[in-house]
Amino acid sequence: MNTNVIINYARLKLPLFLLPIFLLVVVVLFLYSQNALCVEGYVQIQKDSFFFINQYLGQYPYLQINLTQLGDALVILSLLSIFFIYASKVWESLLSGSLVSLLLAGLLKKIFAIPRPAAVFSDDSFIIIGKKLTGHNSLPSGHSITVFTVLTVLLFSFMPKSLKSKIAWYLAIIAAGLVLVFTRVGVGAHYPLDVIVGSIVGYISGLAGIFISRKYRLWGWICNKKYCPVFILLFLICCILLTFRIINQNLVLFYLATASLIVSLYKIITIYVKK
Question: Which InterPro entries does the entry link to (predicted)?
């Protein structure tokens, strides 16, 4: 599996960055055409679409609160922990991409300082599922960046060979990503453009993670058996953190993430003992 991932990475070219950059330019031009390159304008042009999407998706609160957890790095990376054993190159890209996404998310949120919906609209005007967020850090959506960073790495790591399969795989990943990121509107945490921009930034972060892992061996040591105890400890800590999440919220996604970590822990310990 790891060999196939490396082969897929070798086929990637830098022009892949042109599409997300073009999409960001389109978003900026759209905002400019609507006189929305300011906080008030940005919020007002999305008011109706935010309420519409929020009211529709908010009818399924348990589904929304579960799916939106996949934008949490602890949860989504725990679900993918098994790739640490069978496709370490995927994890190298995920780690690099996550660092890039963390940097971009923190920087962009501070630059734009857009107030969250709950900081602008009254609580009884829209649906809030889970914790009420009122900060001035709405753009871009950090959950959306995380989701698309991970999905972009998976997209190119396991890209099929035939053209039809490639198209189907690409569309499936993008569709799944959009379903996940729009849960942020459903729970009342973000505006539609927050998640769209976040998705594009996440795509860029995922690509950057792949190219960094391809050119530099920053994380090459993670497949070395002598470092297994480090990841055994790390996965145990993640299990403990997820256990606290289960106690506090009792969501299905937390159980699935914990189960994935336990399986991965068993595999890693087995490998280390056989060293």
Answer: PAP2/HPO, PAP2/HPO_sf
